[in-house]
Amino acid sequence: MCSGTTLYLEGAEFQYPDTDKKVIKGIDLEIRAGEWIALLGPNGSGKSTLLKLFNALLLPSQGCCFIDGMDTKETMAVETIRSKVSIVFQNPEDQIVASIVEEDTAFGPENLGLPSGEIVSRVKEALTGVGLWEKRKHSVSSLSGGQKQRLALAGVLAIRPGALLLDESMSMLDPASRKSFLDLIKRAHSSGCTIVQVTHRLDEILNSDRTVVVSDGRISWQGKTEQFLSMSEDGLKDMGFAKPTVTVLKEELVKFGIIPVTTKSDIREIREKICLLQ
Amino acid sequence: MSLAVKDLSFTYNRGLPVEAKALQNITFDAEKGEILSIVGHTGSGKSTLAMHLNGLITPQQGEVVIDGLRIEKDPQILRKIRQFVGLVFQYPEQQIFAETVNEEISFGPYNWGLRGNALQERVLLAMDLIGLDHSFASSNPFMLSGGEKRRVAIASVLASEPGYLVMDEPTAGLDFNGVCELTSLLRSMSENGICVIHITHDLELALSISDRILVISEGTVTAYGTPADISERLSNMSVKGLVLPDILSLSYELKKTGLIKNITSDPYTLAEQIKSGQIKCH
């Protein structure tokens, strides 16, 4: 069980040093404890920069960022902030530190100064969760891209953060591993963890509470995920998104009066409803 | 002119306690002007196979023959092979090292001996192919966005004018428009006579853009054929890590029950078919 962390941005702007372009151009955003946010936007819109503001890897050039009420600019608070907010980066190579699978997963808990028994049990739980327990003694270099992505998640889960920030963390996974990865995120969420998920695939955001779209450094849309997905196919396309085909099918079948409007955008549920009619 | 892989096997850490079989008896071929997708679960051996195709790994068993040239550990052969075969890694933006986009893209052809105007023309041509405005030439590639960096990296491989282009997960991390641009780029390259070998775990994408698909699982070939063959095969068998796209899989299921007549991956067509099937039922 973990208690969720609150993430808060006020008037946040960010500009990388030695550049003349602001990447974040004034964002106000409150993410409540235990909320699941889908953070969307085209490549280069500022999504990854936002995530880095949340765990104090970057500091806002204007405005401020608070994590559970702590200002990320307070040097003394950074350590606590980082133990509360963990990022799984897009490229797992960016965060794998050890050469053996289990040593990599133990790195986070060791740094928290946990007793060794606790470290061992967390490593086991995390590696089992991501399906890499059998590979615990293997060298990290023998893992595939997708397995490394799962290892990166294990390393973060072992820290049991209050907020889990996912930066396209499933981009290298096959459909089956993506499903089990999503199940792990769901489990972390149901234990109270705040989730901020950056992705380009709308079929991955069906579980999120709220969708925030960032374009060119500003929030261009926000609202309930349900509401976002119910936009027309063309409307979504104009914003640079492809409507999930399952959602399209559901809406068509609802329109024809074949399945009830309450049906979820879930292929299993749609199949059951159709089979019932036959 | 073609690329042929025959009975290829590869084991990492061979002979050590941690040895791991990555590829076993892989056989396939690919021709100029074709898009061949290699699809498999994470850890199936896709990237290991990719590295065999331009001689980054030389075969332990079996062979890889490109335009009649058999890959072996001979510097002269490897040099030729690398001129024939361009390899774009996963996250190609990590290949970037130069201070300007122009320098980055000209690195390959410069090393193959191109100089002066011919070199400049080649760079601009590669930028056109990938849809990068010429004004980017003087930019610092490290300051570009992820999608732009990826295009620079692909352009730098295209600048060597390879006849074969191996791309390892080129769409990973790209937004919807980026994926659309990249797939139309793959198509236009194959129309220009380049053989595109597209490595992916995205079966849906592979089914929509490929001429042929090679499915590998646990390092062995489990299916090989046209997209229609492959979706038919996968509707009858389960392959680790791969699932048919939802709409396609539902349409196979409903066809078996007799509710619909035609297999489709389009949700609108499927809904229409269900509607007319339903009317007949009642």
Task: Characterize this entry briefly.
The complex is a heterodimer of chains A (278) and B (282). Chain A is α/β, with parallel strands linked by helices and 278 residues long.
Please provide a written account of the structure:
The complex is a heterodimer of chains A (278) and B (282). With 278 residues, chain A is α/β, with parallel strands linked by helices. Chain A has one domain: P-loop containing nucleotide triphosphate hydrolases (Rossmann fold), CATH 3.40.50. Chain A has ten helices and ten strands. Chain A has helices at 47-54, 78-84, 101-111, 116-129, 145-157, 175-190, 225-229, 233-238, 245-255, 267-277; strands at 7-15, 22-31, 36-40, 62-67, 70-71, 85-88, 163-167, 194-198, 210-215, 218-224. In chain A, helix 3 (101-111) packs across helix 4, helix 3 runs parallel beside helix 5 (145-157) and helix 4 packs across helix 5. The longest helix of chain A has 16 residues, at 175-190. The model of chain A has no long low-confidence stretch (mean pLDDT 91). Chain B has ten helices and ten strands. By secondary structure, chain B is of the alpha/beta class. In chain B, helix 3 crosses helix 4, helix 3 (101-111) runs parallel beside helix 5 and helix 4 (116-130) packs across helix 5 (146-158). Chain B has a single domain, classed as P-loop containing nucleotide triphosphate hydrolases (Rossmann fold, 3-Layer(aba) Sandwich), CATH 3.40.50. The relative contact order of chain B is 0.15. The model of chain B has no long low-confidence stretch (mean pLDDT 90). Chain B has a six-stranded mixed β-sheet with strand order 6-7-8-3-9-10, sandwiched between helices. The longest helix of chain B is centred in the middle third of the chain and has 16 residues, at 176-191. The interface between A and B is large, with 47 and 55 residues.
